[in-house]
Design a protein that fits this description.
- The chain is mainly α.
- It has 5 helices and 2 strands; from the N terminus they run H-H-H-E-E-H-H.
Length: about 210
């Protein structure tokens, strides 16, 4: 019967190592490495056999669905054809046919060239001088210059809209104020209330 107690304080102490030789005296066990290599070999062999079996099963199913090969079917190895040479004449014909179709046409790329062209046109309009109407002397100026002018002169004020005179028996429409019961005033009501308050203040000052 063993007298070793695993719960004793001495059981947690590391085993004494003989360092008199100056190097590791024990060697790695080759049995663990051998078991690992054998297991990997078996796993690779089983996986290859399963893949081969699935491939053969799919080939058999496709052959069954397609039927036996006839005079109209022939297996050709396209690798024997090699690279097909470029034909400039055929490319020119294709380009001519593409240009004959009306726009918008299908894009030959992912649209990057169209976006690049659009940005180039925008840059020309935004960053350079260009004519709007040469006969009237109207010129389009760069956006940076326009921002500087607006900062110096301010935003131009639009002229007041001239209202046509009323016809006979016509009346100018007037909105009854307030529109709501006051719980949630609209923007129009707030503007009208502010305008009336300003008019009342001016009338009181004049008196």
């Amino acid at each position: 019967m063993s007298t070793h107690d695993p719960h004793s304080p001495d059981s947690n102490k590391p085993d004494k190592v003989d360092a008199s030789k100056g190097y590791e005296a024990t060697d790695v066990r080759a049995s663990g490495i051998l078991v690992f290599l054998v297991a990997m070999t078996i796993f690779a062999a089983v996986t290859a056999a399963m893949a081969y079996g699935v491939g053969k099963m799919l080939d058999a199913r496709m052959a069954k669905e397609d039927g036996p090969p006839g005079k109209w079917t022939k297996t050709v190895d396209i690798r024997q054809l090699g690279d097909m040479p470029n034909n400039p004449e055929m490319q020119n014909k294709v380009a001519t046919l593409i240009e004959q179709y009306p726009t918008p046409r299908l894009q030959t790329d992912d649209g990057a060239q169209d976006v690049t062209d659009l940005h180039a046109r925008e840059d020309l309009l935004l960053n350079y001088y260009s004519w709007v109407d040469a006969s009237k002397g109207k010129v389009r100026i760069p956006i940076e210059r326009a921002m500087d002018l607006i900062a110096q002169r301010g935003v131009p004020v639009a002229p007041a809209v001239e209202q046509a005179p009323l016809m006979t028996a016509d009346q100018r429409p007037e909105v009854i104020f307030p529109l709501t019961n006051g719980f949630a005033r609209t923007g129009y009501e707030l503007d009208q209330a502010e305008a009336r308050a300003v008019e009342a203040t001016r009338a009181a000052e004049q008196k």
